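Backbone shape codes:
***
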Amino acid sequence: MDTETSSDTVTGTRTSGSATADTRDASALDPRDVAAATAELQTDTTAESSPQTPSPTTEIVAEEPTLVPVDGETPKEPDGTDISTPPTDLVVAPGTKPDIETRPLAHTTSGSPSTTTTTPEASTPESPEPSTSEVAEDSPIAPEIEQAHQPVSPPPPPRVHRSNPIAGLIAIPVAAVVAVPAVISKVISAIMSPLLAPGTPAAPPFLWNVLTWAVREIQNTFFNRRPQVVAQTIDLSLDAGQVSGPISFGGFDPDGNPVTYTVSTPAHGVLTVDQQTGQFTYTLTDPGYTGTDQFTVTISDAGPHLHGLHGYVTNHSSSAVITLNITTSNHAPIAVPDSVTTDWNTPVTFSVTDNDSDPDGDPLTVISYTDPAHGTLFHHGDGTFTYTPNVDFYGEDEFTYTISDEYGLAAATKSTFTVIRGQIHLQAEDDEVTLEEDSTTTIEVLANDTEGDTGGVHIVAVTSPANGTVTLNADNTLTYQPAADYNGEDSFSYTVIDAAGNTSTATVSLTITPVNDAPVVISAPTVTMDEDGVASGIVTAVDADVDDTLTYSIGSPPQHGVVVIDGVTGAFTYIPNLDHNGVDSFGVSVTDSAGESTTVIVSVTIHPVDDPPPTSTTTVVLLEDGTATGDLVPIKVDADGEHVMLHSIDGHAVASTGLTTITTQHGVLTVSSDGHFTYTPNANSTETDALTYEVIDVAGNRSTSTITFHIQPVNDAPVAFDDVYTPASPPVLIGMHSVTFTGNVLNNDSDVDTPRSALTAVLVGQPTSSQVLGLDLDGIEHFELRDDGSFEITGLVLGSLIGLITPVTWTFTYQVSDGEAFSDVATATIRWV
């Protein structure tokens, strides 16, 4: 057959590991497309036998759909269109190649698939040789298809679902099954045609699309792809028993099938797998382990599949090695107590770190230690010590040391020494004793002596101290008493002997500390004095401590007087309470520089005397025009029990009986001999009266006192007097006329405490007019009374036949005010005559 075949290249690209699963439903194929495919198959033989003009072919890049798992439902477009039917009407304009995206599913941590886009080059129909196509593993190849005469938009990318073999069989369209043999024949013809002769395409585009769809359905249904997992290296910081956080295996299944994880056992820990989340946790079980641990994880899918030869070859699981880099935290070292034994008076060298350890193997260093109680300790710097027990010490001793690793973690423990006793000899040890001046102390000198192995130790001799005495007691104690008032240093020695006759001598050193001596009062007077007098004296004291300074003060005050004392000399002055007689006392304290004090009581005897009557100064305040009463002799009996009476006032004798009236400068005073008085100031007086008076007791003793009367002013109301005015009649004609009169009502009014210029006139009653010729005429036309008392009045009058005003009277009433009080009501009268 003489035909031309296009040499355009067909290329398909798919990301490794992604799956292509077409979810198109066979029932969704348009019957018209199936009928068209059948018709083309029936006429294909004729087309092949007839020579045709070569038509340009178009290279198609097959699209790999994005894996979008859905639960077995037929996917829909957003407008509800069923997209499970394979494309039947993809048409490309002559001489062009479409750009079709290939969207393989790639596993990422975010769950978003990666996208690869492939754009084919323009076709080259002149080349008779076919170009080589590079096709990724398992990727379908879109065959060359015939051009259609009406271009349409490419269909939306197909979606995938989890394959079901039974549904896949049912989904294959009947027309597609019938057309498969013819399609296969056409494919073979298409492949061989470039080698034989130019010719027309083997089959129309629809059949290629049906074949592509069928291949996809078969692949997705019968060829399951294995799940994937990748190797990982993970850093963990754990201590023994600690559990890591959840860690993802990173596995996935390209077909979206459920997967199961199986792990091997790691060497240094335990794994816990969560099948739902695909995560695991690791628990370190090897204490202190640092290094690498590994295990293998195998991922297997669990989907229902009909596995063909491909499935048996590729298997359905994947494995990967998970490597764990494990580090642990630093641990504190372990300090173990040491026990060292030596003979007395024999040093011993030992190492404290030999039995200590560090869980991490870190080098250890001694950073501190304490001193033992019964020996000396020397550290050589490398963890070894030399212990030297005290002379003749035996028994147990100890010290504490602290070790540290190179990271600063430390531990402490205690080391014990056992010093083995040797032979003990008698040894008297020196003693040091401190006591206060003028005190006595008993000393157990044998308490610190070493008795020795023979026993029977007692004191056989004591020397005499230079500044005191010492006594040997029956119980082998010594009693020391310093000389009186001595302070300073003293000493003596004693000798002890044991049962074997061995002796030893020691010295007792004494320190006598000074004590303060209290002052001593050598003179304290007894005071005798008269009532209401003043007594003086001096208290004298000495102190055995010559460097002390003495200070005098009142230690206890007197009950019936007051006393003051000179703090340096001890001189005092005592004043008894007024009119007190009898006995009293007070204490005087003498204090030295050290605060030591001595108190002496000073006794006072007060003789009674005859006292004059008491005096007083009295001030009486009363109001103007008021009256004051009182008593000039409030104390009727004086301190001596004598009756007191009023004797005179301002030189005027007061009668022993009855009342005496005395006229003062500003008033009148009426008094009686018992002191009661009544004082009346002069009218409107606001002055002050000061009077001197004398009282006397029955013994004739007199005293003088004063009394002052302060008269406070009060406001007096103004006094208003009636006013009468008789103005002369002006010449008038017969008939009614208006006349005016002016005056001042305050001209004759007064106020005793307010000047007239400060007074104010206040209208009380409006002016009225009297009858004229028997007629009751209201003739007042205008009236004004001012604050200063001036007024103006205008009224109607009647002119008579003689040319004068017919007599008429105008009146009004008013009061006068001084700002605080008002006068009585006064009347002002104006008579026209």
